Amino acid sequence: MKVLITIILFFLTFSFSYCQNIIEGSEGNLSKRWKIKRGDSIKQFKIEPYKPVYFLLANYTTDINNFPTSANPLNTVEESSDFSDTELKFQLSFKTRAVRNLFGKKIGGDLWIGYTQSSRWQLYSANISRPFRETNYEPEVMLVFPTPYKILGFKGVLAGIGINHQSNGRSNPLSRSWNRIIMQFGWENPSWSFMLRPWWRLPEDTIEDNNPGIENFVGRTEFLATFSKGKHDISILAKHSLRGGSKNRGSIRLDYAVEILGQLQVHAQIFHGYGESLIDYNHNQTTFGIGLSLLQWR
User: Whole-angstrom Cα distance, residue 103 to residue 99?
Assistant: First the structure.
C-alpha cells in the first residue's frame, strides 16, 4: 500500500508541474464531456463517451477470489474454483443525453442515460475452458445541472443526482447487485478535473440482499482526479466507507495511458482494496494490468 501511495504522489507532483498557470475562461475536459456550454448542441440520444474504454490484456491479482463469500448464506459458494491469477479485463462505457434543459434554459437540467460494462475473462485458463469469471452491468440515469462558480482557481462545472443499478446478472450463490442514489459534483481547470460522488444505497429485504454491508467495503463515496496533457492521461479513483474502526475500508486505483497511434493508447492500471468487481465486494486484493485503451476521461 505504501508503494502504491508513493507512486500516486509522484504522478501528482509530476502532473501539477504542467498546470501552474490556469487559463482564464478555458474549457476543460469535464465541460466538454458533459456538454455544459449553452452553445453545445448535440442530437438527442446521440452516443457520447462516458467512462474510459480499455482492454487490459494481462491483469494480475495478488489474491484471486476462488471462494466468493457473503454475509447472506445463500450467496456463499460451497466449492472453490480454480481460476488463474492473470486474466483479461475490459471495460465498455457510453452515455446519451435524453433531454436538454428539462427545467428551461435559465435553470437547465440535462437528463443523461449511461451504461458501463466491465468483464474479467479467464482467457489464459485453458484447463477450465477460458470462462468469463465476472461481468458487471451498470445502467444509470443522471440529472445534471451547470454550476458557474470558481473556488481555489478551479471552475465549478456541474452538480447532479441520479439512480444507479449495478449487478453481475448471475443466479445464487454468485448473484451480486445493489441500487444507489448518487450525487455528483465536478470542478476543472484546463488540465485537471475532479469529481466527487457520494451515494446512498437503496435498502433491500434481508433475504434478497446478495451482498449485505457492501457499502462498508466498496464505500459510500468516491473521488476522481484526472489529468490530461499532450499524449498523457492520468487518473486516480479513491473510494471509502466513511466509517472508522473495522469498517474503515475502501479502494484506490491509478490509471496511466499514453497515446501511440491516433486514439490508441498503451494503458496501465494498479488497484488496491475492496470491490475490484462485484463478486469481490468484500475481498481485499492488489491488481496490476497492462493493455490498450481507446477512450479516457478527456
Answer: 10
pLDDT digits (tens, 9 = 90+) for 238-274: 999 999 999 999 999 999 999 999 999 999 999 999 9
272 is catalytic: no
Separation of alpha carbons 260 and 49, rounded Å? 20
**Catalytic position from the list 167, 171, 193, 277:** 167
Mark residue 80 as left, alpha or beta (left: phi above 0; alpha: psi -120 to 50; beta: remaining): beta
The CA distances from residue 298 to 57, 185, 190, 202, 295, in Å, are 22, 17, 10, 31, 8
State the pTM of this model.
0.89
Strand-pair category, 250-261 with 47-48: unpaired
Scan for cell 437528463, then name that residue: 111
CATH number at residue 263: 2.40.230.10
Report, as an integer, the average pLDDT of 216-244: 97
Q: Is 251 a catalytic residue?
A: no
Catalytic residue (one of 81, 84, 93, 165)? 165
Give residue 36's domain range: 2-295
Q: What are the pLDDT digits (tens) for 190-212?
A: 899 999 999 999 999 999 999 99
Domain count, the chain: 1
pLDDT exceeds 80 at position 1: no
Other Cβ atoms less than 10 A from the Cβ of 149: the count is 9
